[in-house]
Amino acid sequence: ILLIGGNGFIGSRIARYFVQRGDTVLSISRNSRPVEAGVQSLNADRTDTDAFAAAIGSRTFDVAVDVVGYKAADVEAVLPALAQRVGHYFFISTDFVYATDIETFPITEDSPKDPDSKYGQGKLACEKVLREWFERKRFAFTALRPPHVIVPAASRALWLPASSSRIAILRRTG
């Protein structure tokens, strides 16, 4: 498993999940914050395509999870290095990609998209890049659009509300 941004708030919890399952987990990040026990840390900035490619080397991964793609250039920078090395790419997006005036639930992949924040616009642009890679290269991906991030109070009190109480999953498989 490759985690892009695996030492942050969400990434560290994803890393812990995979380690507890017994998976081999590598986390690539531009900073040197500690990673979960059992996770191998790789240092490279995703926007430096040469450094990113060198950090992952010739390794292959069943799964890559991208927790820190915020604009199209973020995704465009890593896809060339991962295209032939990843079985399935999971992109953590957001429900901020949807229009804020949706009145029909549940929200689905076909619900209107009209993000009113730079965050939502950037995530939607990342998804567009992934759809294009799927269409041209059959690059298998899943975009997850979580509406809330909630963790137990014992680990840290944080609740990040999003624009709805639903989750939509956009999946493309070659």
Walkthrough of the structure:
The protein is of the alpha/beta class and about 170 residues long. Helices cover about 30% and strands about 25% of the residues. Strand 5 (about 85-90), helix 4 (about 120-135) and strand 6 form a beta-alpha-beta unit. Helix 2 (about 50-55) packs across helix 3 (about 70-80) and helix 3 (about 70-80) runs parallel beside helix 4 (about 120-135). The two termini are about 20 Å apart.
- Shape call: globular
User: Low-confidence parts, pLDDT < 50 over ≥5 residues?
Assistant: 156-174
Number of strands: 9
Share of helical residues: 25-40%
Strand content: 15-25%
| pLDDT averaged over residues | 86
Radius of gyration: 16 Å
| Main sheet attributes: strand count, strand direction, barrel closure | 7 strands, mixed
Notable features of this structure?
single chain, 174 residues, alpha/beta, seven-stranded mixed β-sheet, 9 strands
Task: Summarize this structure briefly.
The chain has 174 residues and is of the alpha/beta class.
Topology diagram in text:
Layout: E1 2-4, H1 9-21, E2 25-29, E3 39-43, H2 49-56, E4 61-66, H3 72-82, E5 86-92, H4 118-137, E6 141-145, E7 149-150, E8 159-160, E9 168-172
Parallel strand pairs: 1-2, 1-4, 2-3, 4-5, 5-6
Antiparallel strand pairs: 6-9, 7-8
